[in-house]
Structures are given as structure tokens and as C-alpha cells.
Design brief:
Radius of gyration: 17 Å
Structural class: mainly alpha
Order of helices and strands: HH
Strand content: under 5%
Oligomer: single chain
Number of strands: 0
Amino acid sequence: MISGIGALQFKSSIGGDDAVTSLLQGGATAGGNVGTSFAEALSQAASKTVSTLQNAEQVSMQALRGDADTRQVVDAVMSAQQALQTAVAIRDKVVSAYLEVSRMGI
């Protein structure tokens, strides 16, 4: 059920979690079987993307207060940019697939 995407619980974290490489991880178990539904995978990807964006915002605010250096800000912002580009690419593919399915004859 895709309606679960609107009920995401967002948490902000500061650390070395690379959201781009882990954006869609967790969808498969060790045996190779898919452990989550498509809606859950999208929900997790959206949650991780928003978390990365919030992290970049938080690090930027810390830099304005003088609590973070420029390198941390650049790393956080670049990670957020990559995560957002990944999310937009996923969205574009989903929309493209929907449009292609809607053009199919029944």
C-alpha cells in the first residue's frame, strides 16, 4: 500500500552514513529473497533521502554557529545533492513506467 509513504518518521542524524549508497539497501535478505514490498522500498528510500537533506541542513546551521568546518558542510551538501538526484531519477523512472503502462492496449 503506497499510502504509507505519507506517514514516514523522519530522524536527523549527523555522521558518516552515505545515503546514496544505502538508499535502496535493505530490500533484499541474505538469501537473495526480497524482504520488503515495493512500497516499503520506496518509503525507505524517501526516508533516507529526507534524512540526508536534514543532515545537510543541520551541518550547515552548525557551520554558521562555528561548530562545523567547511569540509563537513561540503561533504553533507554533496551527499544531499546525490541523494536528491537519485530520488528524482527514481521518480522519473516510476512516472515513465506508469505512462508506458497506461498507453498499453487492453
